[in-house]
Description:
50% of the residues lie in helices and 8% in strands.
Amino acid sequence: MRATRAERENSTAAAVLSHPLRVRILALANERDLSPVEFCREGFAPENMDVSHVAYHFRELAEYGCLTVIEENKRRGSIEHVYRGIGRAYFSDADWTSLTEEERVRISKTVVQGLFARADAAMMAETFDARDDRHLSWIAMRVDEQGWKELTTTLAAAFSEVEQIRADAEKRLDATEAPAIPATCAILGFESPAVPERPLGS
């Protein structure tokens, strides 16, 4: 059963989660203008998936308000649609808690794999450490329930600040001819597996 337009407008997460490929499409389209043909040609689609199937996912994301068509180019009797991202794969607490465990695992794997791919590409291109003020840190820690809540609240607040920085920077870039700096920012916080206790006397 297809979602109503109201449901689509109120749930970007539903549009993305219905197929992991949409996370990849949305991430790329928010970075640069893109057509389904280019998406396939550059190797982002599974090998056994044709352009028409990929185009379907682009159209669905456009229906949800995540993408918009900015160009229509005639190509050999057909029209190639070029899309621009206007929404990001952000999941509110309400969206996330409404998902099944299988859906959560699927989307987490897709997002983390995308992050690793971006980090690897930056290292290969030697941009990862090009700036002296780039940031890289992580910490293993033990917390109680109160500490966990405080941690996730802090991360959510940091995400909001990053989003505001992004929005302000895009406005300045649109108003000037200053060069844009491609950047990636990741915020993670997750429960780790328990560390096995050492046997007594070892």
